[in-house]
Backbone:
C-alpha cells in the first residue's frame, strides 16, 4: 500500500514539473523588456513613429489610445480589431462603434512594416497597439509607464463582439459598470480609464442625444454666468441637423490636445461631452464615483497613477501568449 502511495506521489511531482515547464515555455505571463534580446529596438521604433504621427496630427494620439480600448474589450488584447474582412470573417472595423470612427490603422501598418524589416515575425500587432497607446499618452503630456509585453495575435475577429461589448456613448452608468465588469474591470478602473477622454474628439452623432434632450445636466457649482447653457448652445449650433453628424467636437473643451485631469473638472461643471461621461456624476446616487471624480479633479498625480494601473490591468485582458495565436506578418490579415 505504501509503495503504491509513493508511486502516486512521484507521478504527481513529475506531472507538476512537466506542467510548470510547459506553462513557463508556452503560456507564460506578460513581461517587461520582452523584446530586449529578440528585437532590442522594438519600443524605440514604435515610439519614434508614434511621435511623427502625432506631430503631424495631434488627434492621432487619442485615436491610437482608443484602438487599444476597442481591441481589448472584444476577445481580449489580441489585435483582432486590426483584421480586415476576409472570406467568411467580418472585420470588427465594420461594427457600429467602429465604422467611420476608428482611425490610426495606417500608423500601425507602417510601424509593423518597419518592425518586420528589423525583426521578422517577432513583434506582435497586439504589442504594437499596447506600446503605441502608452507612447500616445506620454507624448500628449500624460504619464509614462513600462508596458508588459509578450502578447500574440488572434486568428479571428468578432464583429458581433464589437457590437456587444464596446460601451456606447449614450450608455447609462449601470450599463458601463456591467460592461467593465464583463472584462474583469471594476468601478475604479471605469473612473480612471474614462479619463482617456481628456484628449480626442467625438462626432456629433455620438453626443447629439445629450444636447437635444432637456434636463440632462447636473452641475456641482453655482452656474452664475450660465456657462453650462452657453456650452450646450455651442454644441447645438454645431450639430443642428443630421447633415452635420460627422462634425467633430473636443471631448475636453479646456485642453483638448493635452493629457491632463481637466476631463474631471469638466464633469463637475456638467461639461462632459458624451452622455457616458456625464453619467459618472449624474447617476451616481451613492456618491462613491463622485468622490473619486473630485479627487482626480484636484490631484492630477493621483489620476495618472490610477490610470496607469488600470491601463496595465486592461492590457492583460484575455491575452494570448506562448504558442497561442500567432505573430502576424501583416496586422490586417492572419498568416497564410
Residues:
Amino acid at each position: 500500500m505504501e509503495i503504491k502511495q509513493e508511486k502516486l506521489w512521484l507521478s504527481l511531482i513529475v506531472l507538476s514539473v512537466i506542467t510548470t515547464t510547459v506553462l513557463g515555455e508556452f503560456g507564460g505571463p506578460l513581461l517587461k523588456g520582452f523584446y530586449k534580446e529578440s528585437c532590442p529596438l522594438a519600443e524605440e521604433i514604435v515610439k519614434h513613429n508614434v511621435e511623427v504621427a502625432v506631430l503631424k496630427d495631434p488627434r492621432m494620439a487619442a485615436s491610437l489610445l482608443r484602438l487599444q480600448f476597442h481591441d481589448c474589450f472584444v476577445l481580449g488584447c489580441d489585435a483582432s480589431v486590426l483584421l480586415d474582412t476576409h472570406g467568411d470573417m467580418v472585420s470588427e472595423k465594420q461594427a457600429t462603434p467602429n465604422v467611420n470612427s476608428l482611425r490610426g490603422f495606417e500608423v500601425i501598418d507602417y510601424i509593423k512594416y518597419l518592425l518586420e524589416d528589423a525583426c521578422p515575425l517577432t513583434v506582435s500587432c497586439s504589442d504594437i497597439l499596447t506600446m503605441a497607446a502608452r507612447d500616445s499618452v506620454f507624448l500628449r503630456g500624460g504619464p509614462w509607464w513600462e508596458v508588459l509585453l509578450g502578447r500574440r495575435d488572434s486568428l479571428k475577429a468578432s464583429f458581433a463582439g464589437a457590437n456587444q461589448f464596446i460601451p456606447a456613448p449614450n450608455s447609462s452608468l449601470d450599463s458601463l459598470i456591467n460592461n467593465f465588469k464583463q472584462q474583469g474591470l471594476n468601478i475604479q478602473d471605469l473612473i480612471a480609464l474614462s479619463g482617456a477622454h481628456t484628449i480626442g474628439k467625438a462626432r456629433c452623432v455620438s453626443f447629439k442625444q445629450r444636447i437635444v434632450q432637456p434636463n440632462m445636466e447636473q452641475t456641482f457649482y453655482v452656474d452664475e454666468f450660465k456657462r453650462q447653457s452657453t456650452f450646450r448652445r455651442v454644441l447645438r449650433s454645431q450639430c443642428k441637423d443630421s447633415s452635420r453628424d460627422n462634425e467633430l467636437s473636443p471631448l475636453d473643451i479646456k485642453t483638448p490636445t493635452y493629457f491632463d485631469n481637466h476631463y474631471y473638472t469638466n464633469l463637475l461643471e456638467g461639461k462632459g461631452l458624451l452622455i457616458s461621461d456625464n453619467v459618472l456624476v449624474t447617476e451616481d446616487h451613492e456618491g462613491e464615483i463622485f468622490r473619486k471624480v473630485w479627487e482626480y479633479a484636484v490631484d492630477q498625480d493621483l489620476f495618472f497613477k490610477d490610470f496607469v494601473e488600470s491601463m496595465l490591468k486592461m492590457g492583460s485582458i484575455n491575452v494570448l501568449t506562448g504558442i497561442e495565436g500567432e505573430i502576424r506578418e501583416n496586422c490586417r490579415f492572419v498568416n497564410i
